[in-house]
TrEMBL record:
This is C-type lectin domain-containing protein. InterPro entries: C-type_lectin-like, C-type_lectin-like/link_sf, C-type_lectin_CS, C-type_Lectin_Receptor_IMM, CTDL_fold. Residues 54-81 form a coiled coil. One of its GO terms (molecular function) is carbohydrate binding. Keywords: Coiled coil, Disulfide bond, Lectin, Membrane, Transmembrane, Transmembrane helix. PROSITE patterns: C_TYPE_LECTIN_1, C_TYPE_LECTIN_2. The chain crosses the membrane at residues 29-50. It comes from the Eukaryota. Residues 116-226 form the C-type lectin domain. It comes from Cyclopterus lumpus.
Length: 232
């Protein structure tokens, strides 16, 4: 733009040898001012656009700043909440593992649960009316901060077999899915010899002294929950 102005000044005021009349100068001058006007107008529009963009960005920045403050506040609230939760959890654990028993001493498993190796087992053995479908049994275990039993080693299999009291079956955490037996976390049963073919809609039942059997998940059975033992 500066170059253009200089150019205008030059053509208007430098003497032109061929056409040295005034009218021509004025024409050139008018033409130059016209073009200058257009350039100025474009500049003005550009400034306006940039300015409104900056205003937008400032507003957006302010919004983000607010959001950040909100989140910081929420994190603080959650930390406070978490701290309280930790304390009430600790209190719950102390009560459950150390006080809620006759000897008033700390145990690796809760009252009514059986310690074997590093796990606690709950053998849920209600009468016929209390028996549950696989899904309901699982809900029950989860309500106890546990899950249906998962059996990964030969030793754990022996333990489940050992706890499968009586002559009826107990749900374990194994179900047929897509033609495969799968534990609840989705891993496949590695030892296929432990049970027969996986029939869709069937779940696994442990019966003492027998191979696991495949039963419709909607049947009602007893069940065994498992939970990590507390290390004291
Ligand atoms: C921040 O939280 C307040 C209320 O806690 C709410 O009114 C405001 O809209 C929130 N701001 C953002 C940017 O989320
Ligand atoms: C709550 O306990 C968890 C472990 O269970 C720990 O990582 C966390 O730092 C604790 N939070 C507070 C606020 O003490
Ligand atoms: C643990 O399970 C095994 C079978 O795997 C059994 O022989 C043993 O008696 C059980 N231990 C207890 C303390 O019940």
């Amino acid at each position: 733009m500066w170059d253009f102005s200089v150019f205008c000044v030059l053509i208007v005021f430098l003497p032109d040898e061929k056409e040295n009349n005034k009218q021509c100068h004025y024409q050139k001058l008018a033409c130059c001012f016209g073009i200058l006007c257009v350039i100025l107008l474009a500049g003005l529009v550009a400034v306006f656009v940039v300015h409104s963009n900056i205003t937008n960005l400032t507003t957006r920045n302010q919004d983000l700043e607010n959001q950040k403050n909100n989140l910081t506040q929420r994190i603080q609230d959650m930390e406070t909440n978490w701290n309280e939760q930790n304390i009430s959890r600790a209190q719950w654990s102390i009560y459950t593992y150390c006080i809620d028993n006759d000897a008033k001493q700390c145990n690796s498993c809760r009252k009514g649960w059986l310690l074997n190796q590093t796990s606690c087992y709950a053998v849920v053995n209600p009468d016929d009316r209390g028996q549950k479908t696989w899904e309901e049994a699982r809900e029950d275990c989860r309500g106890k901060n546990a899950d249906l039993s998962v059996v990964l080693t030969e030793k754990e299999k022996d333990t489940i077999n050992y706890y499968s009291w009586g002559d009826t079956g107990y749900w374990i955490g194994l179900r047929a899915e897509g033609g495969k037996w799968k534990w609840m976390d989705g891993t496949e049963l590695a030892q296929t010899s432990w049970i027969g073919d996986a029939t869709e809609g069937h779940c696994a039942v442990s019966i003492q002294g027998e191979r696991w059997s495949s039963v419709s998940c909607g049947d009602r059975q007893r069940w065994i929950c498992i939970q990590d033992a507390l290390s004291l």
